[in-house]
Structure formats: C-alpha cells, structure tokens
Amino acid sequence: MSLLSHRVRGFRLVDVIALGLLVLLIMSVYLAKTMAGRERAEIASVERLIAAERAQIRLLQAEVAHLEQPSRIERLSSAYLDMGPVAVTQEATPEALAQLSLPAAARAKPAPAPEAAP
C-alpha cells in the first residue's frame, strides 16, 4: 500500500494533508490581513498627528511674525524701556569701533609715556 492511497477514517492521507495545508494557508492570509489593517490604522493616526503638528507650526510662525513686527517692538521699547531712535550724534564710524570695544577706564586714561633710560 502506498502513502498516497493510505486511508485515515475514510479519507486518503493526501487529502488530509492538503486540507491541513489549506487551513494553514487560510489562517496565515487572515493573520496577514489583520496585521495590515492595524498598520493602516496606525499610519492614518500618524498622518493625522503630522497634519496637526503642521497646523501648530503655521500658527506659531504667524505668532512669531506678529511679535517681531518693528512697529510693535518700537512701541514696547518706548513704553517700557524709555528708548527711542538712535540720534545721529550717537552713531559710531567703523574706525571708532575698536576704541568703543575697550572698557570705559581704558578709554578715559591715556597710555603712560615710556621713561627715558639714563
């Protein structure tokens, strides 16, 4: 008697093995589709989060643009810091910048002259 014609409870062994493989194939396809559905839902959730973050970024950029308006900064600086536009007499030339970078004590006191040797 060959393996292909052997019978188990009225069914050929080949038919029982084929049925088992078919059930295994059906279960694996079902499992793969279930996992794909979960992944699809997770991707949609992440895409919604990305869209919400982009909207938040646009909102914050608009707020920064509002806060950095020169007229607003000028109004606040004059109201709270008593600051105004720079007068022409307060402007420095590029040559005077090196002198301005020194501490106030070094600018006020001239350098001592070297003493003559006897």
Quick synopsis:
The protein is mainly alpha-helical. The chain is 64% helix and 3% strand.
Detailed description of the structure:
The chain contains four helices and two strands, in the order ββαααα. The chain has 118 residues and is mainly alpha-helical. It has a domain of 79 residues. A hairpin with a 2-residue loop joins strand 1 and strand 2. It is rod-shaped, with a radius of gyration of 42 Å. The model has no long low-confidence stretch (mean pLDDT 85).
Strand content: under 5%
Which range best describes the helical content: under 10%, 10-25%, 25-40%, 40-55%, 55-70% or over 70%? 55-70%
Strand tally is: 2
Which structural class is indicated by helix and strand composition? Answer: mainly alpha
Q: Globular, elongated, flat, extended or rod-shaped: what is the shape?
A: rod-shaped
- Rounded to an integer in angstroms, the radius of gyration calculated over CA atoms is 42 Å
Mean pLDDT value: 85
Distance between the termini: 132 Å
Which regions are unreliable across 5 or more consecutive residues at pLDDT < 50? none
**How can the largest sheet be summarized?**
2 strands, antiparallel
Write the element-wise H/E pattern from the N-terminal end onward: EEHHHH
Report the oligomer.
single chain
- How is the largest sheet built, in terms of strand order? 1-2
What's the helix count?
4
